[in-house]
TrEMBL record:
Residues 226-476 form the Gfo/Idh/MocA-like oxidoreductase bacterial type C-terminal domain. It comes from Rhodopirellula europaea 6C. One of its GO terms (molecular function) is nucleotide binding. Residues 63-185 form the Gfo/Idh/MocA-like oxidoreductase N-terminal domain. This is Oxidoreductase domain-containing protein.
Amino acid sequence: MVTKASPLLFSSRRPNQPFPGAPSMQPSRRGFLKTSALAGAVAGSTITASSKLIAAEETKKLRLAAIGVGGSRGRYNRGGSIAHAAAKFATMVAVCDVDDLHTEEFNQKFDGKLNKYRDYREMLEKEKPDVVTIGTPDHWHVPIAIACLQSGADVYCEKPLTLTIDEGKQIRKVVEETGRVFQVGTQQRSSGDLFQKAIAMVQSGYVGDNVNAYIAIGGAPGDGPFETEEAPDDLDWNMWVGPASEADYCEERRKFFRWYFEYSGGKMTDWGAHHIDIAQWALAPGENGPTTIKGTGEFPKTVPADFNWNSFFNGEASLPNGYNTAMKFNIELTFDSGSKMVVTDHYKREDENIDFPNGILFEGDKGRIFVNRGKLTGAPVDQLTDEDNAKLNEKIAELRKGKAAMSHMANFFACIEDGGQPISDVWSHHRTMTSCHLCNIALMLGRELKWDPKAERFVDDEQANGLMSRKSREGFSAETHAAS
């Protein structure tokens, strides 16, 4: 029998406020990283041959470069923080950003000694870095990552990795061809006492069989249209837009790019890249992806009903200059095993007092557990014995691919040292992002979709297949920018 949820377990007293300028509805990123670090201590001894190597002075011989570093003008750009984390393990030699202010602010943290660039291709050619971090807006991730991999660098790229399903196929192919180490910045995968333990519990049967996941990732704003203006003189706006369709500058388009399909995928690829990833890892570790996708959603008022998204991405239709990603949604993805993921902006079951704006509820025929960045709770958690925890620790070790508990960045450098695969590799993240993109495509088309996860195509649906890729602006495709 399913255990009834307690009000304290799932109810939220804080309003869902994920919009620009609003306080976060979840623990801060700094708080989450502290929790992740604690996970390493809780898991027992974390010092291995790999972790000793990455702490050694030898790793400082690796030449590190940062592409996209954020700054005082930007939001949703973690490039600076990931680059600083990487600099603990290698020697930073260069920084590249289309905004001179960002470049200068970042360079000051390194006593002004870094070589500075606006064009990453010039940087790769002149600096020949061993390791690169990528923290650009999402639509630039794959073109830049491909160029870095083909230059011989190992790459740490912020999430979400891809803008489309076909981009995932592209980057997967290049990683396989080059053999470089590629880590995606989904740090939740390194949180041992929360997400890894939740996954281990699901896969080990602690919530029973017939497990489903109910996911809340927050909604998105629907503001606009906005006035355009002249871009700052020290910003290369044409390069910022890059492979996306040409657009005039406005602060909203730049600072809150996640709410424009031209550059990202809204909350579905923002928080979805985290929570859908964890849920799919737990529910379907041996499956390539879901087979059926259906649901409903609400777009901003700037998007007409029955809008032709295929024409939009082909450059044949336009929208007012406003946010255009889904604001609210409730989508169900079904796997061959029968397991389901339900992805919502805010999950509620009023009759059972379940209500949460952000997190994952795993429910099986033995009970249910809830996990987010602040807690792992539920009757199955409370009932764990010392013997159960010992078994779960063994399972968690498998999830870590044989490596000890360590930070997400440390895991990346450990893999550079020993040639292993990082905990957030390109294959798993491509599967995650495919599910995120499937959700968005189902919302765009407003109907149930059938997906062949092995062939990686929609079944008998050419309109949906047409949304798997985007037309890149001339001179900015992944192929031309990698080869230039």
